[in-house]
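Help needed: design a sequence for this.
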């Protein structure tokens, strides 16, 4: 499954390709549905093979490289044009899920951009062919979970497994070297870098603030009407204000650093630090992860910076994995555009970042963000240095760090979301960034948020549940399926009832100071 570490494409002599057709993603494994339930329900209202198309793509590749190697973007364009032409000119409804949400953002820019970089469809292609884009579990602004994966091949589940069986995943049992192999493989997948948090401190917060400041760990469940949504901006939980997590510190070395006032943290800048001698001998080269080139001095420099916000995380990844990030930053970008008319933003590396590109000129199109809430979702991490054993990953989540008052458990700070994508990433663009006419949505495409509060299965007969808000299981959520079917049958967002919100997404969005008008800042000279 690994790709070439230099090109991000096929290794010599190995070709792995995505399956085509509806069977490409109906089930992940026997009995474990992904799209199957939704496909079956669409069939009940008349959809069939000739009116439904599964846009399968190789999710390991960077988005532009799916076109370079497989011409996937061209195939999606041709299939959408065929669906419109053979169905009386009726426009399509596109339903992306998870990373597919970012992939389709890239497609909408690619299809209208001139060849050879783009598909040459012209500036009105999306307006002519797309009725609605119904995004499910969309990580529009990335996920902190991606940082943990790239930094230490961990997430909460792996960290807990390490705590339950100390040393098992780190030991060279039967020469598996499990986490090192996972890291080596995943760092060859350029697509993983599409999930790095976007927008920097403007979106995710800094050392002393975050949009989710005051977040309560108590379960949310009451749906808010329009009046309650409007009142969010003025409402805060007074109990939470007494002690709040510093979510803007996405990585902290030590619980004390995560909680300390920023003025008390003594930091030594890691940028430009001399990495020193290799930390591992040549026997580790079969699981080379770039950490072996850092040396003890480089590892120490990373830890001595103490805490990392979204702004410094990209620099951190450049320091610990320069080869990976050289490939990744050729295909993806993580900032906020100052002037979207700048010619640099015509490059494909910006097309999947909603903060560095404009939506198409399609005022009749609708964009939905459908996602689950009510589940603890990874937002920030407490790390520690691991013992310097040969071939080991030098950093690990500190699973001894716990604090119920700040939603810290097993070294992971959690916020509201679907267990994978925090509410902030899934909801901000449709709540504020694209709401109405903004510089990111100049034609005023209508946007809607539909949240689904997680309810676990009532009994074993329900399997994964029919009211789940979890990132994948939501694909079997009856309320979500009903919404998708109604949109596919022609309903508008207003006919669905507009926004359906359980979280504090509107409140959190208002705390983000992001310029939405087209004015370009002018700085006076002296």
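Sure. Designed sequence:
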């Amino acid at each position: 499954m690994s790709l070439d570490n230099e090109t991000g494409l096929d290794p010599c002599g190995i070709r792995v390709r995505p399956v085509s057709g509806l069977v490409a993603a109906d089930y992940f494994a026997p009995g474990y549905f992904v799209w199957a339930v939704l496909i079956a329900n669409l069939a009940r209202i008349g959809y069939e093979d000739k009116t439904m198309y599964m846009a399968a793509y190789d999710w390991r590749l960077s988005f532009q490289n799916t076109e370079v190697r497989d011409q996937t973007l061209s195939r999606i364009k041709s299939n959408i044009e065929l669906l419109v032409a053979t169905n009386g000119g009726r426009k399509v409804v596109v339903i992306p899920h998870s990373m597919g949400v970012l992939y389709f953002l890239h497609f909408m820019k690619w299809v209208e951009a001139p060849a050879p970089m783009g598909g040459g469809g012209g500036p009105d292609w999306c307006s002519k062919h797309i009725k609605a884009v119904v995004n499910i579990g969309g990580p529009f602004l990335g996920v902190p979970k991606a940082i943990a994966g790239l930094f230490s091949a961990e997430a909460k589940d792996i960290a807990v497994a390490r705590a339950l069986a100390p040393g098992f995943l780190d030991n060279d049992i039967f020469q598996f070297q499990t986490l090192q192999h996972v890291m080596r493989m995943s760092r060859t997948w350029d697509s993983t870098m599409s999930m790095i948090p976007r927008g920097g401190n403007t979106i995710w917060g800094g050392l002393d603030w975050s949009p989710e400041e005051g977040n309560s760990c108590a379960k949310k469940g009451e749906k808010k009407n329009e009046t309650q949504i409007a009142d969010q901006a003025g409402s805060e939980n007074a109990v939470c204000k007494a002690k709040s997590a510093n979510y803007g510190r996405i990585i902290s070395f030590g619980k004390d650093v995560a909680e300390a006032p920023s003025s008390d943290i003594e930091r030594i800048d890691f940028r430009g630090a001399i990495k020193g001698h290799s930390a591992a001998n040549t026997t580790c080269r079969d699981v080379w992860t770039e950490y072996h080139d850092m040396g003890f001095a480089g590892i120490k420099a990373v830890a001595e910076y103490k805490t990392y916000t979204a702004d410094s995380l990209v620099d951190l990844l450049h320091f610990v994995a320069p080869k990976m990030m050289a490939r990744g930053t050729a295909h993806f970008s993580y900032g906020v555009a100052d002037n979207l008319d700048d010619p640099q933003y015509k490059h494909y590396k910006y097309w999947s970042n909603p903060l560095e590109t404009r939506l198409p000129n399609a005022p009749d199109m609708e964009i939905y963000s459908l996602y689950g809430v009510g589940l603890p979702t990874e937002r920030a991490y407490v790390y520690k240095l691991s013992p310097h054993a040969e071939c080991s990953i030098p950093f690990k989540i500190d699973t001894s760090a716990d604090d119920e008052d700040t939603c810290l458990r097993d070294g992971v700070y959690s916020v509201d979301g679907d267990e994978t994508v925090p509410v902030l990433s899934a909801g901000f663009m449709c709540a504020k960034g694209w709401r109405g006419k903004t510089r990111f949505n100049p034609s005023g495409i209508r946007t809607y948020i539909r949240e689904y509060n997680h309810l676990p299965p009532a009994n074993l007969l329900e399997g994964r549940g029919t009211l789940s808000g979890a990132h994948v299981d939501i694909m079997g959520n009856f309320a979500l399926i009903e919404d998708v079917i109604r949109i596919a049958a022609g309903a508008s967002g207003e006919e669905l009832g507009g926004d359906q919100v359980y979280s504090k997404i509107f409140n959190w969005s208002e705390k983000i100071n992001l310029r939405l008008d087209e004015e370009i800042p002018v700085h006076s000279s002296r």
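Residues 257 and 264 are 9 Å apart (CA to CA).
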